[in-house]
Amino acid sequence: MTEKWQIHHQESFKAKVDLSGKQNLLMKVSADEEVDTAGAGDKCVGVLMNKPAAAGRGAEVMTAGVAMLIAGATVAIGDYIKSDAAGKGIKTTTAGDEVVGRAESAANASEQFKLRILPFRY
Asked: What is the β-pairing status of strands 34-37 and 26-29?
């Protein structure tokens, strides 16, 4: 019998703004420990799992494990992923980029794909 172990870690933060339309996008954390949509080049903490509808509401962010992320461009299995300007995942091969993880499934732009969250600098 084969056993599969998957570790997932989800953290609760406060939303900096209304994030109700930002589920399955990449998040960054501010100095006051509130989350907002990541932009191009931002260091990402993970993927937003819920839809907090106002600033100060609870934002559940997957910070480790596998999460579904919306692609900003075509993504292939094995691609290293960073944030685009809208918090969507795009491929990177550029030294110095903030990588949030690796694609475990493929997708076209605006489709969801499986992201293995493992942040590092490329």
From this structure: antiparallel
Range of the domain at 87: 67-121
Q: Does some domain include residue 115? A: yes
Say if residue 26 is in the same domain as residue 51: yes
Give residue 21's pLDDT.
Answer: 97
Residue 110 reports pLDDT greater than 80: yes
Q: What is the pTM of this model?
A: 0.93
Measured CA to CA, the distance from residue 112 to residue 108 in angstroms comes to 8
Q: How many domains does the chain have?
A: 2
Beta strands at 9-15 and 34-37: parallel, antiparallel or unpaired: parallel
The torsion defined by the Cα of 11, 77, 73 and 58, in degrees rounded to 10, comes to -10
Dist CA 63 CA 73 (whole Å): 22
Q: Which residues pair with 60 in a beta bridge?
A: 12
Alpha-carbon distance 73 to 71, whole Å?
5
* CA-closest candidate to residue 113, choices 35, 24, 11: 24
